[in-house]
Amino acid sequence: MDALMNFGLGMFGGAWPAVWTLLKIVLIVAPLMLGVAYLTYFERKVIGFMQVRIGPNRVGPWGLIQPIADGLKLLLKEIIVPTTANKGIFIIAPMLAIAPALAAWAVIPFTDSLVVANIDASLLYIMAITSMGVYGVILSGWASNSKYAFLGAMRSAAQMVSYEISMGFSLICVLMVSNSLNLVDIVSVQDHGRFAGWGLSFLSWNWLPLFPMFIVYLISGTAELNRAPFDVAEGESEIVAGFHVEYSGMAFALFFLAEYANMILVAALTSLLFLGGWLSPVGFLPDGIFWLFAKMSAILFLFLWFRATFPRYRYDQLMRLGWKVFLPICLIWLVVVGVWMMSPLNIWK
Amino acid sequence: MDFQTAVFFFLSAILVFASLRVITARNPVHAALHLILAFFTCGGVWALLQAEFLAIAIILVYVGAVMVLFLFVVMMLDINLDRIRQGFWNYLPLGALLGLLMVLEMGLVLGAKYFQVPAVDVLVPAGVSNTKSIGALMFTDYVYPFELASLVLLVGMIAAIVLTYRGPKQSKYTNPNQQVFVKAKDRVRVLQMPVEKD
């Protein structure tokens, strides 16, 4: 590592810190895009097997080149701008969808030292950046000047605002017990506790003491992602394809990339906040980045499983779940955690 | 000019431009979008001043929630700009007076150093988390004003509901609890029919 730093300093001189940061960004975004491509393949295969089909198997061995072929196809397609669309916003909207999905990765730690920006308020930063993802959806729906797209945008706006609240409350519980907003600290706190002392550290992770919040976060995360069964903003059978009905080619692909990048992001956040991140589940195995990826894959599989299993929520049921079920659970558990931390039974000292 | 100053001027230029467009844009949705841009760059300027909590809070609260609802409303409205623009010249003197007053006040605050008013010079020592100190202050020294402010907000929310409430809903709706706990035998009756012969 030192040799690389010296080489860079010699090569670029004063501009080396900027070049090094850019390099780190490329090192995160490139595997992320590859991950997105193969997540789509994985999704089609998994859902295929769950529905007793084969899934993609024509392009390359076991269909492995399929995502590359799809990407190439989307790149070469024409982007059609509807004549009555608001052209500037129509073009900007997909960019507004993907930019937050990528920007949030700046503070995601992969191990206790492998992180682009280790800032103190990283959890707040994530909440702020991810809350901006909704603009891509709203603006694309409005700028398309189409009834279906507009309906999708309206639904999405209401849904995102509702579920962000319960998501925020579950994060507040996590930061209360961690006494920190820094993701690296939040993970390292989960390494302490009675069970961790016995070598069963997976029982010391936040998912057990904060179990209701874990469930709320996972379900609200699925809703924030606009994934089935909460995909009312797309709702193929009701409003055609919702907000992106007028988009084609790479503009559509950007929405697609944003959705899957956000899926990986929520999986990473759930693993970091509730499942101990890079910590190993048992004492005799070493910690490492492998555990983070394993946990993320398990949660991603869960998202695909949801999609293959549940029918879509009706819009009013969705609102009821967010406001009348999750919000009271969050408010009650917030008080429970507060009292728990003040009582002699506090396990997070 | 060092890097921070360059970033400051860059952000300020965007902020001033976006704020101007908020009041000059003809399309209300464009105006709302420029307001979002203004909030976002404002957050950037605050982050530059090492007030990272305020910076993130403005993006989280205003950009992430308030402006989403604002856009929601603006998109649904059918705004006739010509009617709004009527009486522009009648209102101009009063508006200009108010604007001048605000500029004067801002000048007094920002130019405090030049008017011999002792300005507060705060240096953030390294290793002190801004967010943590704000939280600690808010819930110790300023806990009563803070709780009072949240109470005022609560009153505002309830007042908004009371003002728009139009009595109980007369339309039909389903009870999700009953739906969840329904069993097949409550809904479906299997009849045994004797086979008919002809």
Overview of the molecule:
The complex is a heterodimer of chains A (349) and B (198). Chain A has helices at 2-12, 16-50, 66-76, 87-103, 122-130, 134-143, 147-178, 183-189, 194-197, 211-224, 236-239, 249-274, 289-309, 315-342. Chain A is mainly α. In chain A, α7 (147-178) runs parallel beside α14, α10 (211-224) runs antiparallel to α12 (249-274) and α10 packs antiparallel against α14. Chain B has 198 residues and is mostly helical. Chain B has 9 helices and no strands. Chain B has helices at residues 3-24, 28-48, 52-76, 81-85, 88-110, 130-139, 143-164, 176-180, 184-187. The relative contact order of chain B is 0.05. At the A-B interface, α5, α6, α7 and α14 of A face α2 and α3 of B.
Radius of gyration of chain A: 21 Å
The total strand number of chain A stands at: 0
Distance between the termini of chain A: 36 Å
What is the string of SSEs of chain B from the N terminus onward? HHHHHHHHH
- Overall, the morphology of chain B is elongated
Q: Determine the number of helices of chain A (DSSP H or I, runs of at least 4 residues).
A: 14
What percent of the residues of chain B sit in helical stretches (DSSP H or I)? Answer: 55-70%
How many strands in all of chain B? 0
Described by strand count, sense and barrel closure, the largest sheet of chain A is: none
SSE diagram, text form:
The complex is a heterodimer of chains A (349) and B (198).
Chain A: H1 2-12, H2 16-50, H3 66-76, H4 87-103, H5 122-130, H6 134-143, H7 147-178, H8 183-189, H9 194-197, H10 211-224, H11 236-239, H12 249-274, H13 289-309, H14 315-342
Helix pairs in contact in A: 1-2, 2-3, 2-12, 2-13, 3-12, 4-6, 4-12, 6-7, 7-10, 7-14, 10-12, 10-14, 12-13
Chain B: H1 3-24, H2 28-48, H3 52-76, H4 81-85, H5 88-110, H6 130-139, H7 143-164, H8 176-180, H9 184-187
Helix pairs in contact in B: 1-2, 2-3
